[in-house]
Automatic annotation (TrEMBL):
Pfam families: ADH_N, ADH_zinc_N. It comes from the Bacteria. Belongs to the zinc-containing alcohol dehydrogenase family. Quinone oxidoreductase subfamily. It is found in: Cytoplasm. Its main location: cytoplasm. Homotetramer. Keywords: Acetylation, Cytoplasm, Metal-binding, NADP, Oxidoreductase, RNA-binding, Zinc. One of its GO terms (cellular component) is cytoplasm. GO terms for molecular function: oxidoreductase activity; RNA binding; zinc ion binding. Residues 16-334 form the Enoyl reductase (ER) domain. This is Zinc-type alcohol dehydrogenase-like protein.
């Protein structure tokens, strides 16, 4: 099968940084399904894993967002059958989706929404799982809109992949959504996704919120530079509020600033379930199915903003460079071998 991978970490300007490869097609066992990949999305996770290099002799295949068609199923599968159209974010412990075929545990796979194409679906899994888990599981947002009335959430980095979905889900849940953005184009995107208000994350939060008549917020979803926004977050979170972040700190921060407000801080890492083979792995299948239903019901829209064709090393180097630049709006998808 065709695949794109690398043997060692090199700058993206080096043609050897990502290579077109021919690899054996894997065979499913247990609860694995073999998926014929139709489209993939590129995420910061791809860059993170690539930067760690390759500790083996075999090529490393990246990719943690995909949509495709089930080709074969393992003997213990009960959810999917050959021919089913699926989408998923995969598992950091296993070869990624930058290949013609991929093995993935069916418990972390969802049925592709019927109303979108494969590229539009491939833009959604990782960001949707991260946003859903962050909102509903970490910060305890209710699925009952009545319980969310008059509650506010500040989404830092609302124009990015996760922010684009989190904004839609939060608004759909009945929350008042304040998104952050620093550019006109990204602000327009955030507003289009349903944000009630927009503030600039490069400026102090409190004065901007006060101009909107908001003293404190009930929740903060931090999707950009946790340490850099720490003091701003501590200042505007309400007493007994909740903060959730997806961005590693990598430097000392003063957790005590949350003490007197009894604020809870949560980490969200979408790969936790598959990484530790937790007993509730099936929950990711349920989440992706629920998101798919919302897409088909026009309650959530795909965040695809850029397409590249075909899936090969040259296009993936371009995609990685775009993600590395750090100013992406929405999601970039590469489709077709």
């Amino acid at each position: 099968m065709k695949a794109v991978g690398f043997y060692r970490f090199l700058p993206l300007s080096d043609p050897q940084s990502l290579l077109d490869l021919e690899l054996p097609t894997p065979v499913p066992a247990g609860t694995d399904i073999l998926v014929r990949i139709k489209a993939i999305s590129v995420n910061p996770a791809d860059l993170m894993v690539r930067s760690r290099g390759n500790d083996g002799d075999a090529p490393k295949v990246l990719g943690w967002d995909a949509a495709g068609i089930v080709e074969q199923v393992g003997p213990d599968c009960t959810i999917f059958q050959p021919g089913d159209e699926v989408y998923y974010a995969g598992d950091l412990n296993r070869p990624g989706s930058n290949s013609e075929f991929q093995l993935v545990d069916e418990r972390i796979v969802g049925r592709k929404p019927k109303s979108v194409d494969f590229a539009q679906a491939a833009a959604m899994p990782l960001t949707s799982l991260t946003a859903w888990e962050g909102l509903y599981e970490r910060m305890g947002v209710s699925h009952d809109k009545r319980e969310n009335e008059n509650k506010t959430i500040l989404i830092i980095g609302a124009a990015g992949g996760v922010g684009s979905i989190a904004t839609q889900l939060a608004k759909n849940a009945g929350l008042t959504v304040i998104g952050t953005s620093s550019r006109t184009q990204s602000s327009e995107w955030v507003k289009a996704n349903g944000a009630d208000f927009i503030i600039n994350h490069k400026l102090a939060f409190a004065p901007q919120l006060k101009e909107l008549g908001i003293e404190t917020v009930d929740m903060i979803f931090c999707l950009n530079h946790t340490a850099g926004h720490w003091d701003n977050m501590a200042e505007v979170i309400r007493p007994q509020g909740k903060i959730c972040s997806v961005v590693p700190v990598n430097e000392p921060i003063n957790l005590d600033v949350l003490l007197y407000k009894s604020v809870s801080f949560h980490w969200e890492f979408m790969f936790t379930r598959s990484l530790f083979q937790s007993k509730d792995m099936l929950e990711q299948h349920r989440i992706l199915t629920a998101v798919g239903d919302k897409i088909d019901a026009k309650q959530v829209k795909t965040t695809l903003t850029q397409r590249l064709t075909p899936i090969d090393a040259a296009n993936l180097r371009v995609a990685h460079e775009k993600i590395q630049a750090g100013d992406m709006i929405g999601k970039l998808v590469v489709e077709g071998f």
